[in-house]
Design a protein that fits this description.
The chain has about 300 residues and is α/β, with parallel strands linked by helices. Helix content is about 40%, strand content about 25%. The protein has three domains: about 5-85, Arc Repressor Mutant, subunit A (Orthogonal Bundle); about 90-160 and about 260-285, D-Maltodextrin-Binding Protein, domain 2, CATH 3.40.190.10; about 170-255, Periplasmic binding protein-like II (D-Maltodextrin-Binding Protein, domain 2, 3-Layer(aba) Sandwich). It is built from ten helices and ten strands. A hairpin with a 2-residue loop joins strand 1 and strand 2 (about 55-60). Belongs to the LysR transcriptional regulatory family.
Length: about 300
């Protein structure tokens, strides 16, 4: 019998590519991961990995097993969700991940609605960059998470994670009429590796230039304070633009940020996840564009 816990490690290896990366994601030692994968090979009765020095690659059998692992793990998640539904009213811990502007602007009302509708649930919130959400969901560190995607930054497809749209926002440029007009300005961008950073870089590239980055700041309130202090220009979403400080002008652009709620692909019917999604939908900001208006493709922001 194949052990689902070992199948998860094999799935992570197919995604991450190295034993060390799997160990870090799973909070194991590399030696423990290697031992578990060796045990999985014995259970499968065939070679799943090709080891050459420090590199590891999946064999054809390993790739076949990974495809089945996606289906097996999803069915186990569905089974857990079905059992939880039998218990009636959802209760217990509910681990929620969110990016900073959502934590501030969305979650307080959503948590109040969740407490009103389902007092047995105990929400536990952690701030996390959307780029790290899929791994945290697959590892069971989160149950549900708010993520975002931008024009110029297509979503990352992950078989272990399902995401449903909540709303979309207009993006604003500070103190300039267009991105092209800001080509000689210093820029304030998010930390490299984040979706916000990638979006800003690609928006500038689409306008024909590479931005001169002077500051890396992730909190949009701080970004606007830097803009007000004359430290540069920036792109900010409407959630962060409700009350800009003096000295900050905001120009709407034909760019959008879309917020989605994500969870493990087999947990769509889990009572706690359904409760969280319902609370988020009930309290999403009135100023946001309705998803029924249709999501926009990448636009010319020059």
């Amino acid at each position: 019998m194949l052990d689902p816990r070992k199948l998860r490690l094999l799935r992570e290896l197919s995604r991450l590519g190295t034993i060390a990366a799997v160990a870090q994601a799973a909070n194991f030692t590399p030696s423990a991961v290697s031992q578990q994968l060796s045990a999985l090979e014995r259970e499968a009765g065939t070679t799943l990995l090709e080891r050459t020095g420090r590199t590891v690659a999946l064999t054809p059998a390993g790739r076949v097993l990974v495809e089945h692992a996606h289906a097996v793990l999803k069915e186990l998640e569905r089974a857990a969700a079905a059992l939880a539904a039998i218990g009636g009213e959802p209760s217990g811990p509910l681990r929620i991940g969110a990016f900073p502007s959502a934590t501030r602007a969305l979650l307080p009302k959503a948590l109040a609605e969740l407490a009103r509708a389902h007092p047995g649930l105990t929400p536990m919130v952690s701030e996390i960059d959307p780029a790290d959400v899929a791994a945290a969901l697959r590892a069971g560190e989160l149950d549900v998470a708010l993520v975002h995607e931008y024009d110029f930054v297509p979503p990352v497809v992950d078989q272990g994670v399902r995401a449903e749209p909540l709303f979309e926002e207009v993006m604003f440029l500070t103190n300039r009429a267009s991105i092209r007009a800001a080509r000689r300005d210093p820029w304030i961008l998010a930390t490299p590796g984040t979706l916000c950073h990638t979006m800003a870089i690609r928006a500038c590239q689409a306008a024909g230039f590479e931005p001169r980055v002077h500051h890396h700041v992730d909190d949009f309130d701080t970004v606007l304070a830097f803009v007000a202090a004359g430290q540069g220009v920036a792109l900010v979403p409407s959630l962060a633009a409700a009350a800009p400080p003096d000295g900050v002008r905001l120009t709407p652009l034909p760019l959008r940020r879309r917020t989605l709620v994500a969870f493990r692909s087999g947990y769509g019917d889990h009572p706690a996840v359904c409760a969280a999604v319902a609370a988020l939908r009930a309290t999403r900001p009135e100023s946001a564009l309705s998803v029924s208006q249709g999501w926009h493709s990448t636009a010319d922001a020059g």
